[in-house]
Amino acid sequence: MKKYADIFVLLSGLLWGLVGPPVQALGRIGFSSIQISALRWVFSAFIMFILVLIFNRNLLKIRLKDIWIFPLTGIMCILLSSTLYFVTMPLTTVAVANILMYTSPVWILIFSIIFLNEKITAKKLICIALAFFGCAFATGIISTGNLRFTPLGILTGLGSGLFYGLYSVFGKIALKKYDSVTVTLYTVIFAGIGSLFIINFPEAANLIQNNPKSLMPLAALVILMTIAPYTLYTLGLKFSRATRVAVIACVEPMTSAIVGTFFMNEPFTLFQLLGIVMILTACILLQFKKQ
């Protein structure tokens, strides 16, 4: 499994990058951004619990003394990160929200040095810089000049990146004791529980009932862009260093740019191509071992 860790993380980033079309489809039906985020976690928790119950219920077992870690990974890291991201978008722009979210590799580097005893190396710093500026180009923030900032927007955007980065730290702690599926399952369950407090769930359920066409994009969002990538990401995190995982996961905005061009009629610029090249370069550099 260890030799495939980078592939697992790469696949997770590619799947996350496909999130645009289903979210856009749900938005056209009438779902708000917060509703989409919350429903994503509620249904992911339900479906993943059923799958684990059917195929390997031993993965449901955790010790009571360890349960504290999962509200942190689920509510504080995943749910709060995605909620802050959605809050940031109207306060700034989508491009600014994306790039502030992708300060996460920097946060992960800091947290990994403090909590996981990782060492700073020149290669890590170069790869993080390449990934960050690659994300800036890939999201279109450089080419469009779309730089509307507000103090609150900067704060919430940095918060989304910080809490997203913390998942790698707390996830790494949990993975020392539990299988990656168990960690993902309880993370998603607590994110789902927390989601019930930020939306009117009966109202959202009624919206689904009145719009059966919403089931297809919602299913894609839950299964292909939540359960599958988070399971793959956590599995990769189990066998690799947190900073390495953070850089490879930056293929997400690269994928989003490509998907946006081919499926959502968004323009594609040379700056975005440069961003993709920078992100891929960072991923390739990580494959070279120190001589």
Structural write-up:
The longest helix is centred in the middle third of the chain and has 25 residues, at 151-175. It is built from 15 helices and no strands. It has 291 residues and is mainly alpha-helical. The chain has one domain.
Please trace the helix and strand order, writing H or E for each element: HHHHHHHHHHHHHHH
Query: What's the tally of helices?
Result: 15
Number of strands: 0
Extract low-pLDDT stretches.
Answer: none
Radius of gyration: 18 Å
Number of domains: 1
Mean pLDDT: 88
Shape: globular
Q: Whole-Å distance between the termini?
A: 24 Å
Report the β-strand fraction as a percent range: under 5%
Q: Major sheet: size, sense and barrel closure?
A: none
Percentage of helical residues? over 70%
Structural category: mainly alpha
